[in-house]
Write a structure and sequence with these properties.
Elements: E1 9-12, E2 16-21, E3 27-31, H1 46-68, E4 77-87, E5 90-100, H2 106-116
Antiparallel strand pairs: 1-2, 2-3, 4-5
Helix pairs in contact: 1-2
Amino acid sequence: METFYSTKVTATSGRHGYVVSDDNALNAEVQMPREMGGTGGDVLNPETLFAGGFAAAFNNSLNAIISREKVETGTTNTTAKVAVFQYGDGYQFAVQLEVLIPGVDHERAEDLLKKSSPGMRLFLCNKRKHRS
């Protein structure tokens, strides 16, 4: 598999700390959401970052299918809703997508969504690297 792009982001102090990308394009404080016992407010939380990245990546995958199939649409948008659930001693995440594809009927929109979903595969690596 050919890698087109990779990035690296380091989180320090978990949900009460900072996230910084190697290129410093992302350099932000993160806090736990109020609903999970954090301070909330105007500070980013990890779930917001995840939802934004997932929505952008999915919308890009959808637009690639639209372009490949030469479908005329208006500007698409994807909203990702990330929910956190208690799962045993930890947490489980769920993502719900709301997608707008103007200019196509419901059947065509469903077809485009089905075709874009496989392009949005998540690869989970079970590799860990320890740093001192």
